[in-house]
Amino acid sequence: MKHKHHIIRVQHLVPDSRKGFPDQELNDQVRLLFENKNNFIWLEHTNDVSGRAVDAWIDWCGVRNYKNIGLFLNLGVKRPPNSKWERFPIVFCDNNIQSQAFYHTVNEQKFNIDIPAQNKKILFLTGKPLSTNRLPVLDLLDKSELKFTASLFWNSNMDMKHATGVCDLSENRISELVNKYQGSPDSAQITNKESNIGAFHMAGVPYDHAIYQTHQLSLIPETKVKWDWEYNFCTEKTFRTIFNHHPFIILSQPGTLKHLRDRGYDCFQELLPYPDYDQLDISTPQKLRDNWQHIEKNCRALLDSDPTLVFKKCQSNYQNLVQENEQMLESAHRATEHQIDYGAYSYDAFYWGVQPDNWVWPSWNTARRKFK
User: Fold this and answer.
1) What DSSP designation does 277 have?
2) Distance between CA atoms of 189 and 208, rounded to whole angstroms?
3) Which of 203, 197, 167, 173 is nearest to 185 (CA)?
4) DSSP states of 105-144 as a string?
5) Cα(363)–Cα(47) distance, rounded to whole angstroms?
6) Who contacts 219 (Cβ-Cβ below 8 Å, separation ≥6)?
């Protein structure tokens, strides 16, 4: 008899193998899932999850004699020395790609199929602003002669004193930038037709394709800017850009461009005066300012490049994204023997709980859309 496959998304908090979790233990319902020998439990570790976190979960299961487990791992997770992951089945995935494809497919989103306007204009969608590659970059763009559109999502609960420390900007300057760029540059509304999520718009979901069509280049502030041996990954910020056939310069951690190249994406590096710009240290506002001249020159060079050549690269990137997504969904489907139970649980810094039908980030939920 085949096992019944369940997938639990485990994020952010890691268990001590013997003591359990820092704040809580599994609730009875989830514990019974592990203890039922007819079940197979997949632990999904996606986003910026360290290899040591994966090992901690494996040890936690080992102490409790939970043997029927597998691993869903993000493509960027790096295996620690002496890890024993080979004892378990592993599926590598990228739920950032899967979520973008899900939104576009389910909602019949439009996306760019034509060369964007050649207007020398940059699109800079900051998302959460308190990072070296968000507000400090916006400060530099605002002072430059580059043409750009920016969005800023400033939460009124954010601590201004903390922001000044992170961004190395005065309170007056931060307030000036917030007043000037707060909000979304479009009026896109995303509706999940397969659930009751309703209409909404947030930083993580695809923007109206028209915003990409009216800008020539995306400057992407990725989630991580500091080097980390444990993982290297890109988020929806990069993949929604690729989905919309847009050229890009990425401000991220060292190794990001190689990570994308290894997966078959073109990062436009042969068109740039400083092609290995992801090796620039932008981990602090001062280091960003020191290296900004190289980033700005790269932006100008890509804006001045042959638009037909650039767009062919964008089309190739889009096709690579679609192919990657299909391969990941097929892998997840095969590995779980067509037996996925989608009343899945998630564990993060907030609570254990069943993920609602409209929650699309976990890979199992996007897989369901195709294989349910």
Assistant:
1) G
2) 8
3) 203
4) HHTT-----SPPP-S-EEEEE--S--STTSHHHHHHHHHS
5) 11
6) 122, 123, 124, 137, 141, 148, 248, 249, 251, 299
Asked if residue 68 lies in contact with residue 88, where contact means CB atoms within 8 angstroms, the answer is: no
Whether residue 2 is predicted with pLDDT greater than 80 in this model: the reply is: no
Q: Select the more confidently predicted residue: 201 or 269.
A: 269
| pTM value surpassing 0.85 | yes
Q: How far is CA 228 from CA 43, 50, 224, in A?
A: 23, 9, 9
Burial pattern 206-218, b for ≥16 Cβ within 10 A else e, equals: bbbbebbbbbbbb
Compute φ and ψ for 124, nearest 5 degrees. Answer: -130, 100
Contacts of 370 (CB under 8 A, 6+ apart): 329, 333
Residue whose structure tokens are 């760019």:
112
Q: Which two tokens stand for residue 324?
A: 């990657």
Contacts 24+ apart (CB under 8 A), 27-34: 27/352, 30/345, 30/352, 33/6, 33/8, 33/345, 34/61, 34/64, 34/66
First-to-final CA distance of the chain: 20
Tokens 């932006």 appear where? 299
How would residue 8 be classed by pLDDT, with cut points 50, 70 and 90?
A: confident
Furthest CA-CA distance within the chain: 67
189 half-sphere exposure, CB direction, 13 A CA radius: 6
C-alpha to C-alpha distance for 359 and 352, rounded to whole angstroms: 15
Question: 213 with 192: CB under 8 angstroms?
Answer: no
**Which two three-digit tokens encode residue 157?**
């609960």
pLDDT of residue 361: 47
pLDDT digits (tens, 9 = 90+) for 38-90: 999 888 887 667 788 888 888 888 888 998 999 988 888 888 888 878 889 99
Cβ(55)–Cβ(74) under 8 Å? no
Question: Kind of pairing, strands 340-347 and 352-354?
Answer: antiparallel
Looking at residue 286, what is its pLDDT?
A: 96
For residue 308, which of 242, 266, 247, 257 has the smallest C-alpha distance?
247
Q: Is the dihedral of CA 183, 189, 192, 195 positive or negative?
A: positive
Mean pLDDT of the chain: 82
